[in-house]
Amino acid sequence: MSVEQYQKEEEGQKQQQQQFFKRCQECYNLIVQFQNDTLPSGLVPSRHEGYQYDPELRKSVKAKIQLSMQRLDESISHHGLKEIAISYNGGKDCLVMLILLMATIYKKYISTTNEMGSHDIHKIPADYKLDSIYVNSETPFPELAEFINESTEYYHLNPIIIKDSMKHGFEHYLSNINTNIKSVIIGIRFTDPFGENLVKEQYTDHNWPKFLRIHPILDWKYVEIWDFLIGTNVEYCKLYDKGYTSLGGVENTIPNPKLKLPRSEEYLPAYRLRDNADTLERLGRIKKEEWKQSEFHTSSKSTTTH
């Protein structure tokens, strides 16, 4: 590589990092405004006028934000930013996790000053990029694939897409793509499959490639995830507005039957699922052949949860 090529590449990395820091600042400002009820879009943006605002729920979300950002700050301090990546599949939980992480990075390294009155941004490596790992063996919805591409570009992440099983995909990533990574931030919640016995940090087991799993939104509830996304007015995958509440592959995911409108083929948006939402969230995870033969597909009776 010539000196000119090296300088050009170095300048490109610098610009990419500056753009990433800018998004981190935007995420931080978003959090501050959300916490203070000062967002320009108000408590509920007009485009989500069907959302039922609950002041007690909003209060709970604000507390969860503080706790999650505290956990993320501690994890970054203990393990080092350069050794941390995120698992990002474009879903609602991962999106909340990403925004909280980027806000934490800004607060920790850029917004605060040390005793000498200067920023701690110099503690971030000059070539730093936040790897967003998407390991998937299923056929994704086009809308989801599009959102993953758009959001990783918008937030200036370093997208790593691997078509494989989760276990083999992470093994390949850690061994061949980024050997510096020792920890992965994952947007799993207690109510997710295999989530009930997790703690905020723990190492992989059962012959998985070894890395530390960090779970900053472990104790968030479904309705809290949606109150955050609605309240902050951020863009999310369009499938959620079509009644999908949990996103898997094309062959095993349908809109949530509980959101189906009576005598119609249309569905309410995902944020309208409120009662027993954590229990009913994955009701749309079913093979389509089974769904076609089920009572949910043939019944015109209303099962909507408001």
UniProtKB/TrEMBL annotation:
EC class name: transferase
A Gene Ontology BP annotation from the UniProt entry: FAD biosynthetic process
Pathway: Cofactor biosynthesis; FAD biosynthesis; FAD from FMN: step 1/1
This protein's record includes keyword Flavoprotein: yes
Residue span(s) of domain Phosphoadenosine phosphosulphate reductase: 84-168, 180-254
InterPro entries according to UniProt: PAPS_reduct_dom (IPR002500), Rossmann-like_a/b/a_fold (IPR014729)
Catalytic activity from the UniProt record: FMN + ATP + H(+) = FAD + diphosphate
Gene3D superfamilies from the UniProt entry: HUPs
Record keywords, A-Z: ATP-binding, FAD, Flavoprotein, FMN, Nucleotide-binding, Nucleotidyltransferase, Transferase
Superkingdom per UniProt: Eukaryota
Pfam families on file: PAPS_reduct
Record keyword Cell division present: no
Family matches, as PANTHER family: FAD SYNTHASE, FAD SYNTHETASE-RELATED FMN ADENYLYLTRANSFERASE
Name this polypeptide is given: FAD synthase
UniProt organism field: Candida oxycetoniae
